[in-house]
Amino acid sequence: MIDITANLASDLITRTSETARVQQMVQLSLAPVFLLAAIGAVLNVMNVRLIWIVDRVNAIESGTAEDRAEEELAALRRRQKFASLAINFSSVAALIICLVIALMFISAFIRPAIGTLVAICWVGAMVLVIGSLIFFMRETQIATASAKERRALSRAIESQLEEREG
User: Fold this and answer.
1) With contact defined as beta carbons under 8 Å apart, do 42 and 90 qualify?
2) Which of 95, 78, 96 is nearest to 156 (CA)?
3) For residue 17, is pLDDT > 70?
């Protein structure tokens, strides 16, 4: 048992001691790292928007907002849902990209090929990023609608909810 462990450790050290191989893995991981930075920037924007929405909903519910603001509450809640989904999808995508980077390093130093797993994780992360951007786009579409359109949307949302309940 000790011989097997010593052999595995020796083999791992031999495979990871090659500076050129480590440099190559660092270079290959740069694209996912840049994507991770971009997702972080988009997450920051989405979080600021979500915080504003939550503050606005709280102001309306506490009665400190202007008179007609309550009519927009359903649209604000819809925006909150889309913003939250966008943030969740982006966060999971970022975690998977971190996993991709780790798997890329590990794959360079182990015998079983895990390239398929790396590819599946990468595609999954891209699907989540796409979904996140779609939800973010939908939230911004609602936000950029005129006040009159938002009130009409709120009335439509409320009537749909009443139909489901009734």
Assistant:
1) yes
2) 78
3) no
